[in-house]
Amino acid sequence: MLGPMQIAFTLEEITGLVQPRRVAGTSAEATIRGIASLNKAGPGDLSFLSNKKYRAEVGKTRASVVLVPLDFAGSPAPGQSFLFVEQPSVALGRLCARLEQALWPKPAPGVHPSASVAAGAAIDPTATIGPLCVIEAGATIGAGTHLQAQVFVGRAAVIGAACWLMAGVVVAAECTVGSRVRLHPGVVIGSDGFGYEFVAGRHEKIPQVGTVIIDDDVEIGANTTLDRSRFSFTRVGEGTKIDNLVQIGHNVVIGRHCMICAQVGIAGSTTLEDYVVLGGQVGVIGHITIGQGAMIGAQTGIGHDVPPGAAMWGTPALPHTQEQRLFILRQKLPELFKRVSALEEKDSIS
Amino acid sequence: MLGPMQIAFTLEEITGLVQPRRVAGTSAEATIRGIASLNKAGPGDLSFLSNKKYRAEVGKTRASVVLVPLDFAGSPAPGQSFLFVEQPSVALGRLCARLEQALWPKPAPGVHPSASVAAGAAIDPTATIGPLCVIEAGATIGAGTHLQAQVFVGRAAVIGAACWLMAGVVVAAECTVGSRVRLHPGVVIGSDGFGYEFVAGRHEKIPQVGTVIIDDDVEIGANTTLDRSRFSFTRVGEGTKIDNLVQIGHNVVIGRHCMICAQVGIAGSTTLEDYVVLGGQVGVIGHITIGQGAMIGAQTGIGHDVPPGAAMWGTPALPHTQEQRLFILRQKLPELFKRVSALEEKDSIS
Amino acid sequence: MLGPMQIAFTLEEITGLVQPRRVAGTSAEATIRGIASLNKAGPGDLSFLSNKKYRAEVGKTRASVVLVPLDFAGSPAPGQSFLFVEQPSVALGRLCARLEQALWPKPAPGVHPSASVAAGAAIDPTATIGPLCVIEAGATIGAGTHLQAQVFVGRAAVIGAACWLMAGVVVAAECTVGSRVRLHPGVVIGSDGFGYEFVAGRHEKIPQVGTVIIDDDVEIGANTTLDRSRFSFTRVGEGTKIDNLVQIGHNVVIGRHCMICAQVGIAGSTTLEDYVVLGGQVGVIGHITIGQGAMIGAQTGIGHDVPPGAAMWGTPALPHTQEQRLFILRQKLPELFKRVSALEEKDSIS
């Protein structure tokens, strides 16, 4: 079941997309109209076995078509097809990518008449500028890029090729976005960094005249904010994925292929090397470095450099296994206090 | 005092709205122009006693009209009216609901000429579509619903009856919103879930082709984000209230009449049963269930299933009373270390 | 290096702006085209020494112009200028303020033809209303104020003079913004407070009919949300600076010159006195007071009043030095458990 959307794949289309090594059985349904987990699927649905722990559910599923791994031993029920593929989750991904195109077809190239485009903006003829977008002077929009609606692209900002900027995205002046970047609704790129000097009892603003650079193949979640630097740039490296409601401070430099979960905050001038993973709601202090491949548990507070490959947890952060051990001991504190009291009592008697 | 807005209720209008069981005294002011707490109210203001701890302040208030509970013993000062009602806070709510209509009157039905409405969108003739909204093809807007301004409703999305979508709200393609739903500015419904597979050193996107379903009587706070599911749906149950800047991950299912305070994050595929309360900044891991009526304290980190009715606190979460006890013992650690040292010293001497 | 933007200061323009007490050496570059830190600067760049710990880098920098403090002992390399100033960071700030004007010149006054301005809105003739803004009836926009694009100003809202409201800002009905206020993209002022009464198994809404008042010289970061009060007002005092993704609940009153870092949440009816500093991701419960000048460490959870001048840390918050001490002792818990076991063992033998 796939919500209200209408999909309709023939079995031929499905086998064309997932290229199974082997097919067993024949679906009684000519058209597949939904995708569902094994235990929720019904006739006309496609399902899949990606996690071995659900292996037993394949025999019970009512799905018409099931993607199964090559080593799967069972056989389909009457009216059911099994498609044997190397990685069912990758095969499913290909189907969903096709579905995505069906659900959200890119409108034809061109600038919607309601958009406000300043003279001197350079818009590739293959780009699509949706309704009520604003593009300021000197901005550049690359080939095949799609601005959905109500997007703002500031003065001299550069958006690369094949990007998708969804409703309400803001890319402020002078910021640069690479190619194949997907920005979800409400993303703000290029708000001012939070910088002040305390002079005579007031916080005097330090102008933030740098920029933000987003490299290729980055994806950024809804309402996430990335501040422009004091000077030079704030940067997000190639292939890095950022979830919703994340705050990236000024002059932060994030490496390639990092994963940054929802509601993380990274303070100014901190560096993340490549392949860093930050769990949800993590806070990172400014002016430090988190080494390559470090894994930081959810809600952790990072106040110091983290070496490459480290796993950290807690506030303030400790190595993950140490934090786990201390959490267990902490629960034994009432007992420890009693044991010490018992020793003191014996001691006072003896 | 009520800020810059101008209100003007006659005493008759007020008694008509709150239906007091009994009235004592006569206000010297014919018109009530403000609402204020007992200690801040002046002549021309209405005040109320909803919390017994402020009982003594009724005798000192300068308010012209005071809503008091039926069992209140005092009498009004000269030029003052007491209105005796069953629940002063409910009575006040009725007055404020009237005020709200006066402050934010719904514009007349119709589509503002600056809105961009695609061919094939179905807009009820009693709905109001404000300036610079975008409504894509196949979207449906129900009876009496009000899109304030600059709202985006994506392809084939459905908005029910009597909803209020405020400035800048985004409801992405295929998502469904029930009736009497209020969405505050900047809400994003239907951004992609945060799902990737790690293949050959890169995070390959798992397309998110499901939807989001918002049931009747839900209210969602400013800049909160709700991700669409991988397939099937992310859902918020009837009557649930969500505060500002909350993140709801893909495939999360939230029950009926839950309260989710500001800046909470709920990771993918987690279920909240009915009547769950999450305090501010709580983080919930994915793929778990929080049982009916559970109460989770602010900033708590939930990493495991929570049984119905449980009260949890801390990171990682423990039962609330246990966490409180451990917090007290933790403060006694310096003393405990000293006590153990003293025992060791005696022990080494003896 | 300053990202893609093109700047070009002559040395004369620079000395005119920073007014050095003394100049040493002559830059070989007639035009300064970038600003960079000492170790990253090259020919044509300006750099600066604001933190003494980088003193040794001045001798090695390739910058053409360096701002140094009056007591700096070194001399410039050939082709290099040193400008001796009282506070290099303040001098740099003046340069950057000039740059900011160059980067983001305010468009000429007037209302963009694509903006939707209701009859009865009062817009100062020196204000600039950018493309696709919505201004409702009765709203007031002050002299020199700039609404960048796609901004929403609700019914009877008041925006003072010389403000800058960036793309997508929402100021809801009846709210008031002072002068010289800068609101970053996606800020929401005046969403409803989160208030309900539990009646017969449902959360009944308490209408929020108060307003929000933002005083002069406040700056508010991207996608931050400030709720309107139940009645009376939510208020942010003069000169206070608020970072991105912060949540300010209804009836909160924030004093003057506070600093509120990213992702902080402040629950309803809490008061911050002047000069309070809240670190990132701090959570503050409702109905309390944080005293003047208090400093709250990142991720802290504040559940009680905080006295003026206090430094607090942890969840629940303790005095900062106590929390630090307890964090150290906590790491010694495994050792303490062993010491107690050793004592018990000896005790059982003796």
What does this structure look like?
Three copies of one chain form a homotrimer. The first copy, chain A, is an alpha/beta fold and 350 residues long. Chain A has two domains: 9-103, Udp-n-acetylmuramoylalanyl-d-glutamate--2,6- Diaminopimelate Ligase, Chain: A, domain 1 (3-Layer(aba) Sandwich), CATH 3.40.1390; 111-323, Hexapeptide repeat proteins (UDP N-Acetylglucosamine Acyltransferase, domain 1, 3 Solenoid), CATH 2.160.10. Chain A has five helices and 40 strands. Chain A has a twelve-stranded mixed beta sheet with strand order 8-11-14-17-20-25-28-31-34-37-39-40, covered by helices on one side. A ten-stranded parallel beta sheet of chain A has the order 9-12-15-18-21-26-29-32-35-38, with no helix packed on it. In chain A, strands 10-13-16-19-24-27-30-33-36 form a nine-stranded parallel beta sheet, with no helix packed on it. In chain A, helix 2 (55-58) links the parallel strand 5 and strand 6. Chain A is flat and about 80 Å long. The model of chain A has no long low-confidence stretch (mean pLDDT 94).
What are the SSEs and their pairings?
The structure is a homotrimer of 350-residue chains.
Chain A lengths: L8 E2 H8 L3 E3 L6 E2 L1 E2 L9 E4 L6 H4 L6 E5 L11 E5 L2 H16 L6 E2 L4 E2 L4 E2 L4 E2 L4 E2 L4 E2 L4 E2 L4 E2 L4 E2 L4 E2 L4 E2 L4 E2 L4 E2 L4 E5 L3 E4 L2 E4 L5 E4 L4 E2 L4 E4 L4 E4 L4 E2 L4 E2 L4 E2 L4 E2 L4 E2 L4 E2 L4 E2 L4 E2 L4 E2 L4 E2 L4 E2 L8 E3 L4 E2 H12 L1 H17 L1
Parallel strand pairs in A: 4-5, 5-6, 6-7, 8-11, 9-12, 10-13, 11-14, 12-15, 13-16, 14-17, 15-18, 16-19, 17-20, 18-21, 19-24, 20-25, 21-26, 24-27, 25-28, 26-29, 27-30, 28-31, 29-32, 30-33, 31-34, 32-35, 33-36, 34-37, 35-38, 37-39
Antiparallel strand pairs in A: 1-3, 2-7, 22-23, 39-40
